[in-house]
Every structure is written in structure tokens, then in C-alpha cells.
Specification:
alpha+beta; Immunoglobulin-like; 2 domains; five-stranded antiparallel sheet; globular; disordered C terminus
């Protein structure tokens, strides 16, 4: 009888986990992240490394790119970064937006970094205009960096770099881990062409370059759990323990 009950428990738990896990798996399409104008972004990408996501809209009329980068710091007191590299495809030369947390539960603080070497991480001015810069905290320790940037007229792509780290000391970020995922967090972001979404002239912000954007929408992660089925499984577990 005991072995029979144990088997039922294992089957019930397996069923419960199989129901819950897909519901909590994240893709960019499950995230309710909006622009400063509280409208959906034109498209989103599940980035290939570091469990990160990019929502973006390209405005061909004024050569601007509005983005929301979503990632989770390595630790609650860590940082995330999204950057454009105008001169290469790696970290050196990247013009980075960094959101950091100095303590658990604290609001993320935004800084900009002009990265000139792997060993020197110093705040600095960026090589291009940007506006509507802000950060927000989501559930599950995730952080979002919002910004709009000016890209050169006629460009059909930009080199993007993203990163996460867990070391913040006195408001300064430390070096990120050197795991394969951290070293492979670069890609080309296509703005135009057959593999990019059509331009959306009305999609980007019209705030003048150089002015920081004010508070906007509070994006949130959405999870869809079939509560009816899940509660049924819990009831089954309860009946097993009663037996």
C-alpha cells in the first residue's frame, strides 16, 4: 500500500511540474513591455545568450531606435547592460547603458559607459544622442532599460552588445563573469531589409535628443497558469496523503 501511494505521489508531482513549468517559461512575447507612449514595440527578440530580451522599434523617418532591454542581474545587487558598438562587434568601443542595484530591493540606477578596454569600466559620455532613458524593476529580479538612440541615417543594422554582472561596489560595477554565455552576448541588430520588420514612422519617441525621458509605464511579466488543473492536481496530492 505504501509503495502504491508513493508511486501515485511521484506521478502527481510530475504532472504538476509539467503543467507549471511551461507557464512560467519566458519569451519576449510573454512580456508586457511598452514604449514611453504606452504602445507596443514594433518587434521583440529572444536574445541568444544570458536569458535576455530586446523589444524595439526603428523609425526610418528620423533615424531613431527605441528599445527596451530585459535581463536579470547575476545577483540581486548586480547590474545589466545594453550597448551599441559603432566601431566593432565586441565589448571594446561599446557605448553602454547600465542599470545597477546597490542593494536587494533597491530601485535600479542608470549610468552610461564609454568602454575603451576590458580592464577599465569608467562612466562617460556616449558617442551618439539618446533620450527617454529610464529603468524599471520587474518581478523575478528582472530589470528593464528603456532608451531611444539616434543612429546614422541610412544604416540598415547596428552592432549590439549586452551583459549581466553581480558585482557592484560603492555604485560602481565590477567585471562580468567570463562564462561562454557572457563572452557570446553580441549580435547584429537588423533595422531594415528582408530579415527586419518594416519601419514604423510613428513608433519612436519624439522627445528631443539629450533630454532624459520621464517616468513611463511599469512593464510587467505575464504568466498564464491553468489554475483549475493545478488545483485539481493539488487536491489529488491531498487525497493521497490522507490515504
Amino acid at each position: 500500500m505504501a509503495s502504491h501511494s508513493s508511486l501515485l505521489i511521484v506521478l502527481a508531482v510530475t504532472c504538476f511540474v509539467s503543467l507549471i513549468s511551461p507557464a512560467f517559461s519566458q519569451t519576449c512575447s510573454t512580456q508586457n513591455v511598452l514604449t514611453t507612449q504606452k504602445t507596443p514595440f514594433q518587434t521583440c527578440l529572444d536574445l541568444p545568450a544570458l536569458d535576455s530580451y530586446l523589444h524595439y522599434t526603428y523609425n526610418a523617418t528620423n533615424s531613431s531606435l527605441s528599445v527596451a532591454f530585459v535581463a536579470t542581474p547575476s545577483r540581486p545587487t548586480g547590474w545589466i547592460a545594453w550597448a551599441i558598438n559603432p566601431t566593432g562587434s565586441g565589448m571594446v568601443g561599446s557605448q553602454a547603458f547600465v542599470a545597477l542595484r546597490s542593494g536587494p530591493g533597491e530601485a535600479p540606477v542608470l549610468k552610461t559607459y564609454n568602454i575603451t578596454s576590458y580592464s577599465s569600466l569608467v562612466e562617460g559620455r556616449l558617442a551618439f544622442h539618446f533620450w527617454d532613458l529610464r529603468a524599471e524593476a520587474l518581478s523575478g529580479n528582472r530589470v528593464v532599460i528603456h532608451t531611444s538612440v539616434k543612429v546614422p541615417a541610412g544604416e540598415d543594422s547596428v552592432n549590439q552588445v549586452w551583459q549581466i554582472g553581480g558585482n557592484v561596489t560603492n555604485g560602481r560595477i565590477g567585471v562580468h563573469p567570463f562564462a561562454p554565455a557572457n563572452l557570446g552576448s553580441t549580435s547584429v541588430l537588423r533595422l531594415t531589409g528582408s530579415d527586419a520588420p518594416a519601419a514604423a514612422p510613428g513608433g519612436a519617441s519624439t522627445t528631443p535628443p539629450g533630454q532624459a525621458g520621464g517616468p513611463g509605464n511599469a512593464g510587467s511579466m505575464t504568466t498564464n497558469v491553468n489554475l483549475g488543473v493545478s488545483l485539481g492536481v493539488l487536491a489529488l496530492l491531498g487525497s493521497i496523503f490522507v490515504l
